[in-house]
Amino acid sequence: MKKSIIFSLILLFAGAFVYANPKPVDLVYTNPGEDCAHSVRLSWHTTEEESVLLFTKASDTEFKHAKKIKSTGTDTPVEFHEGEKYFLHQLVLKNLKPNTNYQYKILLDSGYESKVYSFSTADNDGEFGFLWTGDVHTHPDIAIRRLLSEKLALSAEAKLNGDMDLVISTGDEVCYGAYYDNWQEWQGGYINSKVWAGCPGNHTYYDVFPKKGQQTVDARWWDVTQNQPDNGPEVMKSNFWFMYDSILFVGIDSIDTSYLNDQKRWFEDVVKQNEGKYQYLVVFQHYPYISGFNGGFGGPNVSYYLWMVLFDEYGVDLALSGDHHVYLQSNALYNKKTSAEPEKKGTTYFVCPQIGDRAREMQGTIYPDIIKSRITSSDLAYESGLSYFKVTKEGLTHTLLDGNGDIVESHFIVAKRPYVEPRSEINLGLIITLIACVCAACVLCITFIVKKQKK
Length: 455
What we know:
By secondary structure, the protein is of the alpha+beta class. It has helices at residues 2-20, 144-159, 180-187, 202-205, 220-223, 260-273, 304-314, 428-454, and strands spanning 25-32, 40-46, 50-57, 67-72, 74-75, 87-93, 101-108, 117-120, 128-133, 164-169, 195-198, 240-244, 247-251, 280-284, 318-321, 328-334, 337-338, 347-351, 371-374, 385-391, 395-402, 407-414.
């Protein structure tokens, strides 16, 4: 009996080691560009230094009209825990068309060809849906986590009638950021066909399991597994922002608070820079703004007091967070109280439930004056859950799904700003060409007139 157990363990560890080796093309992710109607950012790993990206519209199923982009990878810029070697490739696709389905694949000199990946650009019509998830903690030895995450995502997309091309994650997509196979497991899900924006979580920072001595390190593994917009503060690039249709999204790294003042100044600059371009302002980070444990402002890692002044001042609509593994939604809050005019001011704060096998029970004091909805031990405390938002010009409808993919509840959050029509695209090259043509025509006309007068 003991021999069979030992043999099984050997096979398990051997399998884990093989799984952790990078595949010829691995960790392929599609992240948002600053303007998701016209740009996305891609990231992938290879075992060869050179690779070629084939990129085309989804309608070009045979890639006959694909654009070829050569990429030279960076050799192992950050080491993972098991010493995996890889080449990191990152690039930005620009000048894309809104409301268009695209696909791409990656080729190596050796002849290896990756699977086909896909994404869709934003419609820019003020009507769309996005998925919100967090705390999946993918791990190759615990497949139920990713599989359940995928099941719930597909259920959400069906309820949105397929109008869901963006996934927001409030962190801890993987169990341990330093383990390559954890990121391989995350890649295996539904995000292969979505634009995905995730912020760092404490597990993303983990080198090894914290109980073994090492707790958090930094965002180094987050940096080399994705290509989120490079527009964060200089001192902390793991913050970023992007525009998706009518929403300005701001992703915040809440794990390291050493540069909080720099983050706040950057946040103000971002909002001012985009003033008049968005209808909704949505922020997301990992550590909760309000406590999912006791249903209020108390509890560990609560960020409400760090950000409430700025959120009140600039009219943040939604503040999404995770970490506590229990679901909570506040009323529209303004200055620590339920807003008397939610149609004009007030931020709705959320904490997301986990997905998988690590649910917690809500305990402690309840704050009914600020909490609109929460999952308690008497109903769904031990359920997995996932949310999606339907965005319209009138407001945001939040819907929570349980572990079976059934709707638990749905709430409408009224819009506080009018819809902003997208600004007309200006093709500078075309304008210059037209001006040149007009000038040339004028010169020809003048030359013709002068010659005619001389006759």
